[in-house]
Amino acid sequence: MDFIPACNPLYTWDADKKGRVTVHVVNKGFYNWIAQKVFKRPRISHIVLDEYGSFVWRQMDGTRNVHEISKLVSAQFGKEAEPVVQRLVKYIQILYQNKFIGYVKEK
Fold first, then answer.
1. Cα angle vertex 28, ends 52, 9, to 5°?
2. For 59-84, how does the pLDDT look when each residue is reduced to its tens digit (9 = 90+)?
3. Which pLDDT score is estimated for 62?
4. Going by C-beta distance under 8 Å and a sequence separation of 6 or more, which residues neighbour residue 74?
5. Cα gap 105→101, rounded to integer Å
6. CB neighbours of 85 closer than 8 A, spacing ≥ 6?
7. What confidence score (pLDDT) does residue 60 get?
8. 23, 69, 73, 85: which could join 13 in a potential S-S bond, CB 3.0 to 4.6 Å?
9. Contacts within 8 Å (CB) and 24+ apart, 80-83
10. How far, in Å, CA of 107 to CA of 84, rounded?
11. Distance in angstroms (rounded) separating the CA atoms of residues 37 and 39
C-alpha cells in the first residue's frame, strides 16, 4: 500500500472527451519488425482503458501511493468499485508486469 506507482515514460497516452485513456505502445525489436512485415501487425498498438482503469491511470503521477489512490477510487465510484483495494492492487500488478508502470521510491 506504500508503493508509489508512476506511468512508464516510454509510453505516450492521451484521453478522449469522455476521459478514457489510450496508451500508445510502439512495437520495437526484431520480432516485432518481422510481425509487422509478414503478418501486417501495426507499428503502434493503442490500448484503450475502461472508465475505472482510466481514472486510476490519471492518478498514478508518481506522488500518490496505492492507499491514496484507493481512497480516490472509492470517492469517485463508491460501491461500484468494491472491493476497492483488492481490485486496485491486482490492476496495478498487471500494469507493472506488462511494464506500463514503475514504482517511485518513497516520499
1. 45
2. 999 999 999 999 999 999 999 989 99
3. 92
4. 81, 84
5. 13
6. 1, 70
7. 95
8. 23
9. 81/52
10. 23
11. 6
Cβ neighbours around 103 below 10 Å, total: 15
Q: How far is CA 66 from CA 30, 40, 53, 82, in A?
A: 36, 39, 14, 15
Express each pLDDT in 21-51 by its tens digit. 999 999 999 999 999 999 999 999 999 999 9
C-alpha cell of residue 99: 511494464
- Grid cell locating 4: 508509489
Specify the DSSP class assigned to residue 98: T
Query: Length of the chain in residues, anyone?
Result: 107
In one-letter notation, the amino acid at residue 50 is: D
Gap between the Cα atoms of 50 and 63, Å rounded: 23
